[in-house]
Amino acid sequence: MLWKDQYELGVPSIDEQHKELFRRVESFLQALRSAGSWEEKAPRLNETLEFMKGYVVEHFRDEEEYQLSINYPGYEHHKQLHNGMVDYVLEVSEQYERSGNNEDLMQQFGGRLLAWLINHVAAEDQRIADYARKKG
Amino acid sequence: MKDKLYKALVDATHNVLKLMLNVTEISDRPAVDFSCDDEVDIAIGIVGDFQGEVIYRFPVATSLNMVNIMSGMQFEEVDVFVTSAVSEIANIISGNVLTALSVDDVKCDILPPVQCKPDEDKEYDIKTSCYLNTAIGDICLTIRLNRA
Ligand SMILES: [Fe+2]
Ligand SMILES: [Fe+2]
Fold first, then answer.
1. What is the ipTM for the molecules in this complex?
2. Within-domain flag for A5
3. What pTM did the predictor assign?
């Protein structure tokens, strides 16, 4: 399983969203890494990719709203990190379409997304939870 | 400066391995003892007050272990996915190194990761390497910089 309890922040609303986000990334990665030819995999892959992308945007938006609600001082910086990832996702999606579904592009995206997401949740999102706890 | 760089690099790697991979058993050894002939080598360019790069040498077994832990899946060989995931880890560690240095008012930026050969050697003002032995395998790191 992709989700690990060590990623939990202790803020229930965010933790629930992270679990859902990890579920969607996991189905994308499973489609990406499943056996079979790329042509066979492409339809399911595109479906899981769209399903995940939608939730990334939704989660980032909700998490930013939460930061504002607690006056989190790192809000601007954190929003930049989110925007950077959204831009990257859009850019790859475009490149992928233009390339006629080039597999390497998607594999490269999958690897980076995996490591980025884990670090973001374990390090950057953790700072929001630390602040919320300190503030009480 | 050299000692500071060494410490920043080792600390950043410790933190990232702990946070992302739950790896805490890490010991550092003399870099000359590191040897490996099948590895993933990633360079992260540095620009700003200093110019140069950080070179990450991840043996194949270490690379696969890292990706298996993160994904919960079983990767058997290094492919585009694995190289990309490992490159992002190198990117994250390098970012943390620069954040640590910025406390001392050293201002630098990092460039996107590229695959490289570790042995191309020029002269550098500052160069330091470390060899980390961890529960998921060895890692060798080099940081080499010129004053801009
Ligand atoms: Fe998040
Ligand atoms: Fe976030």
1. 0.95
2. no
3. 0.96
DSSP of B73-90? S---S--HHHHHHHHHHH
Q: Domain B2-147 falls in which CATH fold?
A: Chemotaxis protein chec (3.40.1550)
Collect all residues with Cβ–Cβ distance below 8 Å to B3 and sequence separation of at least 6. none
B83–A29 C-beta distance less than 8 A: no
Nearest CA distance, A118 vs chain B (angstrom): 6
Instruction: Choose among B22, B71, B79: nearest Cβ to A107.
Output: B79
Instruction: Report d(CA A38, CA A128) in Å as an integer.
Output: 40
For the stretch A88-96, contacts whose Cβ atoms lie closer than 8 Å and that sit 24 or more positions apart, written own/partner, are A88/A112, A89/A53, A89/A56, A89/A113, A93/A49, A93/A53
What residue ranges of chain A have pLDDT lower than 70?
none
Confidence of residue B1 (pLDDT cuts 50, 70, 90): confident
